[in-house]
Amino acid sequence: MSKLELVIVLAAGDSKRMKSETSKVLHEIAGRSVIQNLLAALTPLSAKNLTVVVGAQKEAVAAHLLKIAPNAKCVVQEKRDGTGSATALALAEHKGDGTVLVLAGDTPLLTNQTLSEFVKAHQDNESPASVLTALLPDPSGYGRIIRGDDGVILKIIEEKDASDSEKDIDEINTGVYLFDIKLLRSVITNLKSNNSQKELYLTDVIGLINESGKSAYAILSNDYTETLGINDRSQLAECAAIMRDRINHQHMLNGVSIIDPTTTWIDADVVIESDVLIYPGTSITGNSKIKSGAIIGPRSVINSCQIDTGAKVIESNCTDSKIGKDAKVGPYTYLRKGSVLDSESKVGAFVEIKNSTIGQGSKVAHLSYVGDAQIGEESNIGAGTIFVNYDGENKYQTEIGDHVRIGSDTMLVAPVSIGDGAYTAAGSVVNEDVPAGAIAIARSRQVNILGWVLRKRKGSKSAAAAKKAGAKE
Ligand code: UD1
Ligand code: CA
């Protein structure tokens, strides 16, 4: 297969139907922008040149392209007067001859396989122009293919310009074309805007090629879902769901159990080993990596986390964190950025952790906030413990050694350190370091005033109960 000379991606459109401040090509599907998904399918074609036509939101689109495709050349279309003029601008900026692939930036589901087959069919036909087409259950909104004999296309008619009988045609233009560059240059200058949108349509070059005595061919794609375009939010959601199914299917083929694929959302760049079990209502995003034997969900949100073998994360929200081998998280745990849970540690219900390490086998089981702390091995942080890391201006560190027992409802006022094997008494406010092996008791001593209820709450149910129990005034 000879190399493509040029790929042109059209991404200048105003995205009017999205009703968004953001260009539709920058909206996300599976953790990648719409255009990034498309470019991922193009990369293996190794075209010599890639030009992206930008216009609406051009600074944002160009800045994004610089990050994801630094070799792409951006051509600016100031006036959005159609796909034909956008393509003409890109061609004017290019010198070489050969074959050009033109696509719309808003079709993120195309795969490399389909594009490669399209290029091969075009080359086998030795045709000067080919259009990738699809049969859609609901073709409304798309350009319709008017066929001649033997696979030749006579023209493409846009929905807005189509007659009722033309609208009945269910073969549509996917917006993916291959052209001989010389031929395209010669016809594109003849486009006219005498249509309902007063635009120069790229689709009209097919009619012009046909009139010039040459033939353009329709090549039907096998899977219409790949060719769906995003023009509005409903189509964005539809494409996202198809991408979700595709990603989940691949993970399941790789040996991942996904109990309910329809409620499990996994980003394209997530890596999951075999024998991971994912329960319903879970999303795994960013560059998360999940090792074999881990159990995730139900209803967990995992963003850019590394989860080791045998770890369990139940009904929890975790971001930018590391969860060690056989560690247990949840239910209802919030792991914020920089939480590191060593192997066999446990973090339980209503615990929030930020920028802290929980050492091997240590437990923060209930109702705690742990911020900016280093906790050693096999220590236990009692229920309701708060790491008081912020004085209103600065954040401070807390250090906790190995085999420490922090009593329930302790306030650890940072900066503070608790030595190996030390204890704190329940309800203590600890603002001084505790040496190894000591117990810190930092609370007022309890006083019992006998008979107080009988004297001060005479006639109450409490007084009656106390009396029955033998209390005296
Ligand atoms: C286009 C095709 C239609 C096809 C459909 C496939 C035309 C006239 N129609 O319609 O036959 O079925 O794609 O998805 O081509 N763009 C520019 N500059 C412009 C206008 C558009 O760069 O002046 C870009 C858009 O950003 C978009 C792409 O071209 O990425 C297609 O434009 P869009 O407005 O989405 O065309 P459709 O109405 O979907
Ligand atoms: Ca479109």
What key attributes describe this structure?
binds uridine-diphosphate-N-acetylglucosamine; 2 domains; nine-stranded mixed sheet; UDP N-Acetylglucosamine Acyltransferase, domain 1; eleven-stranded parallel sheet; Spore Coat Polysaccharide Biosynthesis Protein SpsA, Chain A
Overall description:
α2 links the parallel β4 (49-54) and β5. Helices cover 21% and strands 28% of the residues. It folds into 2 domains: 4-227, Spore Coat Polysaccharide Biosynthesis Protein SpsA, Chain A; 248-440, 3 Solenoid (UDP N-Acetylglucosamine Acyltransferase, domain 1). The longest helix is centred in the middle third of the chain and has 21 residues, at 233-253. The protein is α/β, with parallel strands linked by helices. The protein binds uridine-diphosphate-N-acetylglucosamine (UD1) and calcium ion. The site of uridine-diphosphate-N-acetylglucosamine has 29 residues, from β1, α3 and β10.
Concise synopsis of the structure shown:
With 473 residues, the chain is an alpha/beta fold.
How far apart, in Å, are the first and last alpha carbons? Answer: 101 Å
Count of the separate structural domains = 2
Largest sheet: 11 strands, parallel
CATH architecture group name of the largest domain: Alpha-Beta Complex
